[in-house]
Recover the amino acids of this structure.
């Protein structure tokens, strides 16, 4: 019984506390500011593992610049252990993300702190009415599929 309780104490000491107070603020076009509070045992933390999961159901095939650039459904970042915020950019505007963060120290990982949905990633409002509008992705794809040219 003494050995079992010693094992329990050892396990409890080997578990990292999770980051707290996860906050997400829209920053500017395609950017979110993500911040958190370090856990009480922050001196043990080597890094934080931050993951954003795209929650937007509609896949966008076009952007203002033409065909969509690679924008994965999941963005994973490793941040320094003394960081308590980061600015995540190159996110798809008008999109929502589930955000998860956990502390890491060597092979140990804390439980995950999560926010089920971020605020909407900011988009840019149009500055002027569009000129020289050309069909791009969807129309070109339909024309090609149906041999309309």
């Amino acid at each position: 019984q003494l050995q079992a309780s010693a094992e329990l104490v050892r396990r409890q000491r080997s578990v990292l506390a999770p980051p707290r107070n996860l906050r997400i603020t829209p920053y500017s076009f395609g950017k979110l500011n993500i911040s958190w509070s370090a856990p009480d045992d922050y001196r043990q933390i080597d890094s934080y593992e931050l993951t954003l999961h795209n929650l937007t159901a509609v896949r966008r095939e076009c952007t203002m610049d033409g065909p969509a650039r690679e924008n994965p459904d999941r963005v994973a970042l490793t941040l320094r252990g003394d960081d308590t915020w980061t600015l995540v950019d190159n996110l798809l505007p008008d999109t929502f993300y589930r955000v998860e963060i956990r502390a890491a120290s060597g092979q140990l990982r804390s439980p995950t702190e999560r926010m089920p949905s971020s605020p909407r990633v900011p988009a840019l409002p149009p500055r002027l009415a569009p000129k020289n509008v050309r069909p791009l992705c969807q129309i070109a794809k339909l024309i090609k599929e149906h041999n309309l040219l």
Notes: Residues 16-145 form a domain with the Immunoglobulin-like fold (CATH 2.60.40.10).
